[in-house]
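User: Could you go from structure to sequence for me? I need the amino acid at each position, not a summary. Structure tokens:
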């Protein structure tokens, strides 16, 4: 049984992985959905599955947020649809290629998805949320936002931007009724590790890998009931989730201090990549 209707959630990068799990869990919590991704076939398959399981209204809006026209189409929907109460900025991709061996054009495309699209979509959603006095924006970053040396430097920098941008949104919009959250996944069992050139999450120790379902579920858990491999930092239930820390800490500086002590161990676990072209998941 689903919960009462809570408005519509627009989720980017929803054709698989974390985005598809957000779709499943938000629909079960009472949200109708608008799902976006560039792969129309995979997107519609997710939408059909969620419709059948939840009974909610689920729309598939095929759009490439790294394409000007596609991004503007999603922006226009955020501005014009008064039913939208939640934006999940999940679309993104990464790489493990060293900076000197990475394709600059591919790095520019990564910035387009991980930085530009996140920024423009938040700007599209925020005015309407502020005008109504409620709404929420979830930006999916990464624990490499705190340790950009772990994988590709541009990827780490792009996620550091997402975290800083989210903190700025929290500062400006929270007093006006808009809830803001940054989610910092660690090693998660998705296609990311294959796309990034590591060969799949199976090459990582199982003890450091969490499932997308556990990650998304942990986002709304209270601190007393959170999973042992995650930590909630911030104002509940909108908070930062980091599977690399084990208890809440009140500031980004303290998060970084604890996370940096674990970065050397993780870097030894991730196989070195001589040259790994990145490609997008959705």
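Assistant: Here is the amino acid at each position, in order:
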């Amino acid at each position: 049984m689903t919960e009462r209707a809570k408005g519509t959630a627009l989720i980017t990068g929803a054709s698989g992985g974390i985005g598809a799990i957000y779709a499943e869990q938000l629909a079960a919590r009472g949200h109708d959905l608008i799902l976006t991704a560039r792969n129309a076939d995979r997107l519609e398959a997710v939408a059909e599955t969620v419709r059948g399981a939840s009974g909610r209204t689920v729309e598939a809006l095929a759009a490439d947020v790294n394409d000007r026209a596609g991004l503007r189409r999603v922006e226009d929907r955020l501005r014009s649809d008064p039913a939208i109460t939640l934006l999940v900025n999940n679309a993104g991709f990464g790489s493990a290629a060293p900076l000197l061996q990475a394709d600059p054009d591919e790095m520019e495309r990564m910035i387009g998805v991980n930085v530009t699209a996140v920024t423009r979509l938040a700007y599209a959603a925020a005015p309407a949320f502020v005008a109504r006095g409620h709404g929420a924006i979830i930006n999916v970053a990464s624990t490499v936002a705190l340790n950009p040396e772990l994988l590709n430097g541009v990827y780490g920098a792009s996620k550091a931007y997402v975290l800083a941008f989210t903190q700025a949104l929290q500062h400006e919009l929270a007093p006006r009724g808009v809830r803001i959250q940054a989610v910092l996944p660690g090693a998660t069992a998705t296609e990311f590790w294959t796309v990034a050139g590591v060969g799949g999450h199976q090459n990582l120790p199982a003890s450091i890998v969490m499932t997308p379902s556990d990650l998304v579920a942990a986002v709304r858990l209270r601190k007393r009931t959170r999973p042992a491999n995650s930590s909630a930092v911030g104002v509940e239930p909108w908070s930062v989730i980091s599977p690399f820390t084990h208890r809440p800490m009140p500031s980004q500086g303290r998060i970084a201090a604890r996370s940096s002590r674990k970065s050397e161990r993780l870097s030894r676990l991730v196989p070195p990549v001589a040259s790994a072209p990145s490609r997008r998941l959705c």
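One structural detail worth keeping in mind: The CA atoms of residues 230 and 243 lie 4 Å apart.
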